[in-house]
């Protein structure tokens, strides 16, 4: 095939080298640089949507700048609809004589697109409930404005489902008019493909489509027919807090650039209107001009690990377009050291550090897989790693019906073993069928994706460990010549293996039993680690442990709500002694925990 694509865990290109144009994520291009530091198979590299300033786009620009010194024939194109072109051109420019333009090695090209005028409306006073205000605005548009579909921006799935449900319910009470029909549709990343595609379908005459979306509709996709935009003014982003040592999904205010990008969605086919659910004063005085680059708000452990694997030992002197905070860099180095990926001199350990850098996973999850052979549970860990790498395994997980189905697969030790149960049932009893998934309110697309990811990770693990095949990867839930393994013993081995990677994400129940606190704060003075700010943690409502109060747990990630609560997701119960046993360099002796 002449045109192909590569994303994490999926490669649709010609293995014989006939692919001439390849689309890929920025992360995958960076991984290719680990294997081929000069990216010698490419003559032109185009970085699109550069204004989003993702972590890997920023790193790639630094890497490409280094490559250009060795390969002046390489052509780099950086493109975006809302780009600070001068800043990007200055970053790549080698001309130090601004008066002599003949020495320029960069050029700025502007391609004017056709945009219709968009009238922007603000609230006169701030709203205390932007979800309800958004719903009311939708119906004001629907009953008072002429034809044109509506695009509503919300922060995540829960808000989107709430808004869609309310619009559908209230639409049944509308008096007849020429726009009597209203079709509300959700759009977010974890939605099944067939439901995502509905937003692009034309509607019948006399029906107005209302698409309620995350910021995926801000730039990544263009929905035809949009004449009105309702902008909540918020977005959910992944942010790392070096004071707490945790990365979470947090709701925050958008930037002025994002607000303009959202408003522009109303002016693609005709004159449009944008309704901003915040005041003009908030827009002008409280919003940043541009979004904070991801490199300044992310856990940098994976980035530092891969830069070192690329041969860039002194990552602090790497040519970043925007330098990351020093505290985040130091925390990344500390975490990698605690994972034993770096030695006392900050160099990659051999072979473990190099193996970890080659894995397309978060370093903590990568360590779990690499350690799984020693714990005798590689097959189980491959499944767990695949399942936590996809979103929304259960359809509408907070509904009563989904909770009932969820409990059928539940394991008292927590979510990781519950996910293992779901996968095993899908493959065996369910025979990988969509009908079985529908009957159990399980997302068939997510399960199919997990199958594919597990297969890819298995190949990575076999190759990385130098094994001859998957048959050499142990399983603690299978039988061998000596008879069956005790299932209780197997669950202990699996949970211990999880602790080996997630030890930095452990939590202890608070004395009053209402919430948990990070295990980092449970250590007496003198324990090794930088200081952390006390953090209250709650169990996520979708967890199998939601109504339980285990004393000690480890978790996969933290999600913050707009009310400031931090919820642990994918949680498993542990014995606190395992922390001292498996991470004595990070925690104090087990008798002190």
UniProtKB/TrEMBL annotation:
CDD domains: SF2_C_RHA. Its EC number is 3.6.4.13. One of its GO terms (cellular component) is catalytic step 2 spliceosome. InterPro entries: DEAD-box_helicase_OB_fold, DNA/RNA_helicase_DEAH_CS, HA2_WH, Helicase-assoc_dom, Helicase_ATP-bd, Helicase_C-like, P-loop_NTPase. Keywords: ATP-binding, Hydrolase, Nucleotide-binding. Residues 134-311 form the Helicase C-terminal domain. It is an enzyme of class 3 (hydrolase). The keyword Nucleotide-binding applies. The keyword Metal-binding does not apply. Residues 1-101 form the Helicase ATP-binding domain. Pfam families: HA2_C, Helicase_C, OB_NTP_bind, WHD_HA2. It comes from the Eukaryota. GO terms for molecular function: ATP binding; hydrolase activity; RNA binding; RNA helicase activity. This is RNA helicase.
